[in-house]
Write a structure and sequence with these properties.
- With 267 residues, the chain is an alpha+beta fold.
- It folds into two domains: 5-136, Roll (2,3-Dihydroxybiphenyl 1,2-Dioxygenase, domain 1); 151-264, Roll (2,3-Dihydroxybiphenyl 1,2-Dioxygenase, domain 1), CATH 3.10.180.10.
- Helix content is 16%, strand content 42%.
- The chain has an eight-stranded mixed β-sheet with strand order 2-3-4-1-5-8-7-6, covered by helices on one side. The protein has an eight-stranded mixed β-sheet with strand order 10-11-12-9-13-16-15-14, covered by helices on one side.
- The longest helix has 12 residues, at 33-44.
- The chain is globular and about 45 Å long.
- The two termini are 15 Å apart.
- It comes from Streptomyces hirsutus.
C-alpha cells in the first residue's frame, strides 16, 4: 500500500492530469447526502461546493481548497450499494467501457457527460465489484493526497486475485505485481512503475453480506483518535485499530453504512 503522491498537487502547483489507469476520484452515493456531508465535514474537515447534477444532487468535498471526493444522492432506480467507489482515469471512457464489457464486466451507468467536468461510466468487474471510469475535461479529479482527510489508497477485496487482476490490467493497462508471501494472496496494480491500487484475495473469508468490493483508505493523523470520533458522530467500528506493515489501520462505517478505512502511516 502506498499513496499516489506523484499525481497530487503540491502547494503553488496547478492540478495534474492523472495518468490513465490511476484512481483519480472517489465518490459516495447515499440516501441522505446532507447527513453524510455533515458526518465527513466533522470527521475530515471537508468543505463542500456543488458539482455536476446529471445523476442528481452532488457536491464535491474540498480539503484546504483542494478537491478530494464527492458525495451525491443515490436515486431509487440506481441499483448500487451505499459505498465509496473509486474512479479510474481514462482518455476515452466509451472505449474503456467497451473493453469492460468484452472482458466480462458490466456497465451499469453511462457513459454520460457530467456537464463540462468530464465524462463518466460506472461498471463492475467480472466478480461484481463496482468501480467508476473518469475521462477528465474541466475536472481532473483528486487534487491532493498524502495529507489527513485525503484518499490514500484503494483496495479490492475479492475471492482470488489472479483472474480479476488480469481484468484490470486489460481494461486499464495496469502492471500486476504479486506480493511475495506464502499465506497472502495480494497483488499491486501499477501505473508507470508506481503502485496505485491493491487486490486482496480472501477466498471463503469474503463477507457473505458484501461480496467483492473496493475499499478506500483515507489518511489520518491518529487512527485511534479518529475511530473515537467516528463513534461519536454515529458511525461504527468494523475492524479495530491495529498495526500493519504499512502503518496503523482501522475499518469503519459512516451512519448510513458506507465502509472505509483509515490509514496512519509509519512514524
Amino acid at each position: 500500500m502506498t499513496d499516489t503522491r506523484g499525481s497530487a498537487r503540491r502547494d503553488g502547483e496547478a492540478p495534474v492530469r492523472h495518468a490513465p489507469g490511476t484512481p483519480c476520484w472517489v465518490s459516495l452515493m447515499v440516501h441522505g447526502p446532507d447527513t453524510a456531508r455533515m458526518f465527513y465535514e466533522a470527521l475530515f474537515g471537508w468543505e463542500f461546493r456543488p458539482g455536476p447534477q446529471q445523476l442528481g444532487p452532488y457536491a464535491r468535498a474540498l480539503l484546504d481548497g483542494c478537491e478530494v471526493a464527492g458525495i451525491g444522492l443515490l436515486a431509487p432506480d440506481r441499483h448500487l450499494p451505499v459505498a465509496w467507489t473509486p474512479y479510474f482515469a481514462s482518455v476515452d471512457v466509451d472505449r474503456t467501457a467497451e473493453t469492460v464489457r468484452s472482458c466480462g464486466g458490466t456497465i451499469g451507468v453511462g457513459p454520460l457527460d457530467a456537464a463540462e467536468a468530464g465524462r463518466l461510466a460506472i461498471g463492475s468487474d467480472p466478480s461484481g465489484a463496482v468501480f467508476g471510469i473518469w475521462q477528465a475535461s474541466a475536472h481532473l479529479g483528486r487534487a491532493v493526497t498524502g495529507v489527513p482527510g485525503a484518499p490514500a489508497w484503494n483496495e479490492l477485496t475479492t475471492f482470488e486475485s489472479e483472474r480479476v487482476a488480469k481484468f484490470y490490467a486489460t481494461v486499464f493497462g495496469h502492471t500486476v505485481r504479486p506480493e511475495v508471501s506464502a499465506d497472502l494472496d495480494y497483488v499491486a496494480l501499477s501505473v508507470e512503475g508506481r503502485p496505485v491500487a491493491g487486490i486482496h484475495g480472501v477466498g471463503n473469508g469474503l463477507p457473505r453480506d458484501r461480496g467483492p468490493h473496493w475499499t478506500t483508505y483515507f489518511t489520518v493523523a491518529d487512527v485511534d483518535d479518529t475511530v473515537d470520533h467516528v463513534l461519536h458522530l454515529g458511525g461504527q467500528i468494523l475492524e479495530r485499530p491495529h498495526d500493519s506493515a504499512r502503518g496503523r489501520v482501522a475499518t469503519v462505517a459512516d451512519p448510513e453504512g458506507a465502509r472505509f478505512s483509515l490509514l496512519q502511516g509509519p512514524q
